[in-house]
Specification:
Radius of gyration of chain A: 26 Å
Largest interface: A-B, 34 and 34 residues
Order of helices and strands of chain A: HHHEEHHHEEEEHHHEHHHEEEH
Oligomer: homodimer
CATH architecture of the largest domain in chain A: 2-Layer Sandwich
Strand content of chain A: 15-25%
Structural class of chain A: alpha+beta
Helix content of chain A: 40-55%
Number of strands of chain A: 10
Low-confidence stretches of chain A: none
Largest sheet of chain A: 5 strands, antiparallel
Amino acid sequence: MERRMEILRAIVEDYVATNEPVGSKVLAARHGLSISPATIRNEMAALEDEGLIIQPHTSAGRIPTDLGYRVFVDRLSTVKPLSAPERRAIDKFLEGAVDLDDVVARTVRLLSQVTHQVAIVQYPSLTRSAVRHIEVLSLAPNRLMLVLIADTGRVEQRILELPRDMDESTLTLLRSKLNARSVGKKLAALPETLKGLEEEFTENTATNIRQVIGVILEMAIERSEERVVVSGTSNLARHAPDFNESVHPVLEALEEQVVLLRLLGEAVDEMKVKIGHEQENKKLHSTSVITTGYGPTGDAVATLGIIGPTRMDYPTSMGAVSAVARYVSRFLQEEI
Amino acid sequence: MERRMEILRAIVEDYVATNEPVGSKVLAARHGLSISPATIRNEMAALEDEGLIIQPHTSAGRIPTDLGYRVFVDRLSTVKPLSAPERRAIDKFLEGAVDLDDVVARTVRLLSQVTHQVAIVQYPSLTRSAVRHIEVLSLAPNRLMLVLIADTGRVEQRILELPRDMDESTLTLLRSKLNARSVGKKLAALPETLKGLEEEFTENTATNIRQVIGVILEMAIERSEERVVVSGTSNLARHAPDFNESVHPVLEALEEQVVLLRLLGEAVDEMKVKIGHEQENKKLHSTSVITTGYGPTGDAVATLGIIGPTRMDYPTSMGAVSAVARYVSRFLQEEI
DNA sequence: CTTGGCACTTGCGGTGCCCGAGTGCCAATT
DNA sequence: AATTGGCACTCGGGCACCGCAAGTGCCAAG
C-alpha cells in the first residue's frame, strides 16, 4: 500500500513535470524505485481500479485523475516554502504601495508572477471591516457626497440628491453625529447603529437624513463583497494544451464577478484546494483553484488565490499562495 | 478606378463576414456586380500589385492586407450607427451606476458586449480634472488621511505619517486653506496653486505642511494617468484562429498598463483606428485598435476603445465605440 | 475593354501503412 | 505469495500518396 502511493506520487510528479502520460518503464528508470516495470504495471492497474489514474488511450502511459491529484495533495505532498530570493522579491514588490488599491493591484500581479498562474485577489470585505470615518461633503445645497472610509483601507463614495436643501450647520451636525455613532463599529452593524438617527433632527430635515442613511447602508452592505481583481490571464494561454478544449470557457468564467466570488468562497484562514470536477462550475472542470484568506488583523477579511490547469505543481503553488497571503496580511497591518 | 475600389470593398466585407479567402467567382455572384469573374480577376491582380490584397496561397482567393483595410476604413466605409434596441440597452446598462468606479466598470463591460471584442477604458485623467474637494482626516496625532476628490468623480486617498504631531485646530486651518486655494483649480496646476502654503503656518508646523503638500502632489500628478480597465478578453479566444500564432502575446500585451496606455494614446475627440502593423507593439501586429476620447465636459478627459483581430467589422465596431463614448460622456455629465 | 475558355497550381481531406510505446497476462523464479 | 521477464496485442501518430475542388493567369475572340 505504501509502495502504491509512492508510485502515485511519482506519476503525479513526473506528469506535472513533463506533461506526458507516464509509463511503467520511465517510472522505473527515472525514480529510484528498485522495482521492475512489470511490478509497477501491476500496481498501476490497481491504482486505475481505485480511480486514481487513467490511460488516455490503450497504448499510452497513465495520468492522474482529479481524485489522484486529491490524494496527492492530501496525503503525499508537503507545501513547498518559497526560496529566499523569492521571499525578498515579494517584500520588494509590495514595498512602495501607497493605498489599498495599490496593495491589491500589486498583490494580484505578484501572485500571478510567482505562480505563473492566473491570480485572483478579493478586496477586504466591507461587512467585516469597521468604520474609520464618514465624511459628508456638500457639492450643492441639495447634493451631497458621502465618503465612507473603512479600517481595512477601503474607501467608498457616493453622490446623492436631497429632497430638500440642507444648510451648513445641519451638515456639520450630521457629520459629527454620524461619526460619533459609527466610528469603530462594524459596517455590518450599521443598520443597527444608525437606527433612529433621523429622530435627532427637526422634522423638516428628517427626510433628508433618512435619505443619507439609506445611501450609507447601500454603500456598506449592498455592494460590499463584490470587488475582485484578476491578473495573469495570459498564463492560461501558455498552458493552453492542458485545457480539454480551449481556454475560452475559462476566460469567460473569469470575467464573471459572481463566479469569481463563489470561487473564492467565504474568507477563512486555512488554505483550500479545489481540483477539477470538485468545482461546481462546469466551465472550470479542467482547472484547479488554490485559495486562502488574508487580512490585517490575523483573521481573514478577504480571500486570494490562483487558478490553473489541474496539471499544476501543487506543492509549489500552495507555498506561493500561502506566502503571499502572509506577506500581504503583514503589510496591511503595518502600512494602511 | 471606382470599380476597383468597389471590388476591394466587396472583398473586405465578404472576408470579414465569412473568414474565407474570397475568389472571383463568389465575388461576382454574391455582390451585385454586373461584371464577369474574368474581369474581376484582372482588377484583383491590380489590387494585389497595389498591395491592398494578397493570396495566402496560389489556389486560394484573396484577403485584404493591413493597407487594404486602411483604404477600406478611410475611403470605402461609413460608420454604422447602432440599432435602436442597442441604444436602449446602453442607456439601461449605465442607468444604475452609483459612482465613477461603477460607471467605468459598466462601460467597459458594455463596450465588450456590444462589440464582441476586448474593451479598454481609461479612467478620466486626473491632470485634466479640477479639484472638487480636499479632505484631511486625522487618524492619529501623527497620522493623516488625505482624500482628493476631482470633478470627474475620481477619488484618490493616501495615508501619511507626520514628522510631528498635529493638533486639531491646525488641522482645521489646513483643511480650509487647502480648499480655499485649490477648489475649482486644475490638478495639473496644483504645484503652482499650493506653492508657499507652508509659509502661512508657524515655523513648527511648516515641515508637516510640506509633507502634506508633497503627498497631495504625488496623488495629483505622479500616478495620475495610470488607471485602465480591460474586459472581454474571452472574446480573444473566440477569434483565436484570426491571430497568426496564438492569443498568448496579445493577452500578455493587454496585461501591461504601459502598453494599454500607449495604445489609448492622448485623449482626443475624434476616433482613431490603428490597423495591424500600423501598431508599434509587435505583439499586436495581428490586431486592430479603435479608440476615441470621452469626457463629461465635451472635450476628452480620457480614452476608451476596443482591440480585436484585424479582420473585424470596422463600420459596426466604430459605430459602437463612438456611441458608447457619447453615452458615457453624457452620463458623466448628468450624474457624477 | 470585356469575356469565355483552358491549362496550371496547390492546399486539403481521405486512405493506407508502419512504427513505437505501452499494456495485460502468463509462466518462471525467488 | 510476490516479483519478474517474456510475449502477443492494441492503438495513436506520423508519413506518403492521391484525387478533388477552388482559384488563378493568360490568351484569343467578341
